[in-house]
């Protein structure tokens, strides 16, 4: 990661942003959406280690989108158009991305029953998610 990218990444986390025990709140699954998708309404949190993981393992995709890892997560959380099931108990928040090299961009969430929030596990562009069950779609 270049110095310019690191500086931009630091700037993308405002000092007044809600932080909880090493986590940063990036959004929330609202009650109306949760009810339709039959999932829990809760905050969406990301751990600094997962942001580092996204930066390390998905840098090519992030560079093609010209976006920092944290801004990528926020973009998907703020603009998701679908919720799909994923392996195990995890979910995918999906944003359509027709004008890019990738069909969709997504983040994987896993519910933390102890802390009662959705935790971002990974984030990456994806080509085809039709095999993942559609739980909710924006109307």
What does this structure look like?
The protein has 139 residues and is of the alpha+beta class. It has one domain. Helices cover 32% and strands 35% of the residues. It is built from 5 helices and 8 strands; from the N terminus they run αββαβαααβββββ. The chain has helices at 3-11, 31-37, 48-57, 59-65, 69-79; strands at residues 19-20, 23-29, 42-47, 82-85, 91-96, 104-112, 117-126, 134-137. It has an 8-stranded mixed beta sheet with strand order 1-2-3-7-6-5-4-8. The radius of gyration is 15 Å and the shape is globular.
Q: Any descriptors?
A:
139 residues, globular, 35% strand, 5 helices, alpha+beta, 8-stranded mixed β-sheet
Give me a quick take on this structure:
With 139 residues, the protein is of the alpha+beta class. It is 32% helix and 35% strand.
Mean pLDDT: 83
Query: What percent of the residues sit in helical stretches (DSSP H or I)?
Result: 25-40%
Secondary structure class reads alpha+beta
Oligomer: single chain
- Give the neighbour order of strands across the main sheet: 1-2-3-7-6-5-4-8
The largest sheet, given as strand count, sense and whether it forms a barrel, is: 8 strands, mixed
Radius of gyration: 15 Å
Write the layout of secondary structure elements.
Elements: H1 3-11, E1 19-20, E2 23-29, H2 31-37, E3 42-47, H3 48-57, H4 59-65, H5 69-79, E4 82-85, E5 91-96, E6 104-112, E7 117-126, E8 134-137
Parallel strand pairs: 3-7
Antiparallel strand pairs: 1-2, 2-3, 4-5, 4-8, 5-6, 6-7
């Amino acid at each position: 990661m270049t110095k310019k990218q690191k500086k931009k990444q630091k700037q993308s986390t405002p000092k007044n942003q809600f932080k909880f025990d090493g986590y940063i709140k990036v959004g929330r699954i609202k009650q109306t959406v949760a009810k339709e998708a039959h999932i829990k309404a809760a905050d969406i949190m990301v751990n600094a280690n997962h942001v580092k993981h996204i930066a390390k393992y998905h840098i090519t995709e992030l560079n093609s989108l010209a976006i920092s890892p944290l801004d990528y997560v926020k973009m998907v959380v703020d603009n998701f158009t679908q919720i799909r099931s994923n392996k195990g108990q995890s979910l995918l928040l999906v944003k359509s991305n027709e004008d890019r090299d990738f069909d969709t961009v997504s983040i994987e969430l896993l519910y933390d029953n102890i802390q009662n929030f959705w935790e971002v596990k990974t984030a990456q562009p994806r080509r085809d998610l039709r095999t993942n069950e559609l739980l909710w779609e924006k109307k």
